[in-house]
Amino acid sequence: xxxxRMYSPAASDQELRRQVRxxxxxxxxxxxxxxxxxxxxxxxxxxxxxxxxxxxxMALPRDYGGSDRGAVERWIVVEELLAAGAPxxxxxxxxxQTGPLIARFGPEELRKRFLPEIAAGRxxxxxxxxxxxxxxxxASVRTSARRVDGGWLVTGTKVWTSGxxxxxxxxxxxxxDPAVNDRHAGxxxxxxDLSSSGVTVRPIPFMDGSHHFNEVxxxxxxxxxxxxxxEEGQGWAQVTSELVSERGGPDRYMSVFQLLMLAVxxxxxxxxxxxxxxxxxxxxxxxxxxxxxxxxxxxxxxENPAPFVPMVKDLGTVFEQEAVSFLRDVSGEPQRMDHFTDxxxxxxxxxxxxxxxxxxxxxxxxxxxxxxxxxLR
Amino acid sequence: xNSSGSPRLIAADExxxxxxxxxxxxxxxxxxxxxxxxxLWPGDLWRALADxxxxxxxxxxxxxxxxxxxxxVLIEVGRHATPLPVAETGVLGGxxxxxxxxxxxxxxxxxxxxxxxxxxxxxxxxAPRHLRATFxxxxxxxxxxxxxxxxxPGPDSGGEELVLLVERRRFTVExxxxxxxxxxxIVHVDCALDPGDAHVVPAGTVxxxxxxxxxxxxxxxxxxxxxxxxxxxxxxxxxxxxxxxxIRFQSVAHLLAIAAEQCVLAESAVQVAAESLADxxxxxxxxxxxxxxxAAHAARVISANAHQVFGAIGVTQEHELQLYTRRLWAWxxxxxxxxxxxxxxxxxxxxxxxxxxxxxxxGNAVARPGxxxxxxALPNRNR
Lengths: 377, 383
Known about the structure:
The complex is a heterodimer of chains A (377) and B (383). Helices cover 45% and strands 14% of the residues of chain A. With 377 residues, chain A is of the alpha+beta class. In chain A, the strands form two sheets. A four-stranded mixed beta sheet of chain A has the order 2-5-6-9, with helices on one face. A four-stranded antiparallel beta sheet of chain A has the order 3-4-8-7, with no helix packed on it. The N and C termini of chain A lie close together (11 Å). In chain B, the strands form three sheets. Chain B has a four-stranded mixed beta sheet, with helices on one face. In chain B, strands 3-4-8-7 form a four-stranded antiparallel beta sheet, with no helix packed on it. Chain B is α+β, with helices and mostly antiparallel strands and 383 residues long. The chains are: A alpha+beta (377), B alpha+beta (383). At the A-B interface, β1, α1, α7, α8 and α9 of A face β1, α6, α7, α8 and α10 of B. β1 of chain A pairs antiparallel with β1 (8-10) of chain B.
């Protein structure tokens, strides 16, 4: 059995927490409603102000406009932002995934071009991974990139592409070599400018009516040759590493934090009458966030946190769903779409309608458990 | 929260843990636990642990960080279902002796904190003269050389907390067992007390002892859970059905994955609780309650999944799996209980209010410099 490996937070972490809290207090729109974790609103002004403080691109090297403050400090900032339900939607994916991806795999030209813009909070990315017949089995993508003079022509359809309607670019996993037999070979990651000719972004409304998902259709979209991330044919290894870095962070247990806090505010008596269940749920929350912190500490210490990453995502997202289910019992009211009695009821409706996605997005429960089990063999 | 400028790894001394692990690998096979259930006290094993300095580990009141090493020892004891009062003699009894100003040694001790079902009569107030009592579920009372009675007076009585030492010849033992077949005896005492064996201890001692008791069970459980997962994974690799090892079946693999992640979650919570007991911040009780609650939930999942993987062989007496799963079910309910701990943690969080909710969880309410801790203490454990 793999042994747990926990780090305790440094006292100095708490000062950074207070700075972030003060910043959010000063910069958030007073009328903004509390929201669900990474469902956080799109607010370019907030992203720019956050970047101004050096809190976007914290994991990126200084030479490229990042602040190189390490995984732990980034973890603290992100957790505080999610706890406050801050409007992180604009820069979120570029900060979490695309920046580190480009920093790691290059090439140098792309690092110089994109990383300073990402760290400034003004260059926003979407992730073009899934396709109509491709969900968890990512190696079967069919979007193709054909070599032409000066670059590629890309054709295919991407789905569930969160934020594509507001992003500047989409990192697009596509097949650059159709001839290979090994399905993990011949894949590459290209940066598609979403304002290019041949790109159509169509909303796929979520069941609560909100617009996060899109279908992105690419028909002979020209991508200049210098917008290849890493190496041609190495797309599978690159996207796998990207997903690992995506999975162990606070976004995997913080989605429902605002909801929990609103329950404490608006339904303390109902919670009190179910204190053992509430305590059991919060015990898992408390431990999960310390595990997630420890993953960041391991990264900074040069250790490999990989075995713990799918565990945190699986435990975290299952916790989120159980918390929503529990709070529906606490509420005790038939759920509605409007005329809410308070913010708790409003966010509970939203959480109820969003919670099935918690264990699907970014790698399903079943994929994660398969990864964990392979580690046991 | 640690006072250094960087994250600090919470780890038991690797040499201590490995040494105990190897010692128990060799000297505490499943047969020792099975024999103990039949009434055989493993005296040689106790002496080996005592000679290595492990029997009383975690009892040094001047070295609070020793409890992190003790965690490593307790995890190994749980992992081997070692049928000995290691927690009682070190983390609990040894510590209580130290608080009472008594010499600590590695002779086996057992403890009683008067419980609802117990009857206790102490005459003489702060200078106790006579003890007449019946205690239930006293661990290894028959094998212990001393009984320690930790007594907190009722909240309104104005009396002081006492630790009383009773030598083996002065109490009688009625044998009884917990669901794992470990001795949890009924002890009858009716004797005069030597003034030198009655100690007034600082207020809060009994409460702290309860925390350490709950922690000790969570740590033992963590070890037993790791063993259950290891056994189930090992079996699923070699057991063939339908022409292949059963670990190749996704449904079986996922049972194991779920068990493994619960095991890591529980040990993570135990590590945090150990550090918290070492540092003794205002919210130490919360961390212990969290560890207990997480461990209890994990134990239910792991015991169910491990048994499911083993099928019929796992539910037999001859198979070792039941040594660990029965202990999980027994330890879950000792020194309080998971539901009680969950309830206390939940209510304590509610008491901080919505405005203090996040501060409390992140520890900021405690660490804010220049201010006294803002946390309301956890209520006394309702024993």
